[in-house]
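Issue 218. Parser rejects a valid record. Input:
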Amino acid sequence: MTQQGQGHIRERMTILGDLDAASFLPWIERHAAKLGLSQAISHISSARIELEVAGPEELIDMMEMGCSLGPIDVWVETIERTPINDQADEGEGSSFRRPQHLLLLI
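Output the parser choked on:
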């Protein structure tokens, strides 16, 4: 596998629709961990969930696809993705939760 395309990025993902946050949040966390993505949820409501994800762009694409299909008890209308500029966000102190299996490698 080549190194091209393996760069890590950070994005804000805004999921809009008829969302049952009680079932969807654990689903999001579980799938981000399976993909090895760091994630932090910043807003939760029945119509919108905002999270920041970090990792290889291809895996963030897979996360978006997974969320769009989601669990059966939610209806995702739209997913908006916005790149996060690390230099602009340095002072904000965002904290990402690392997947448990990655903690062992550090």
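Fixed in the parser; the record now loads. Residues 1-5, 87-106 have pLDDT under 50 and may be disordered.
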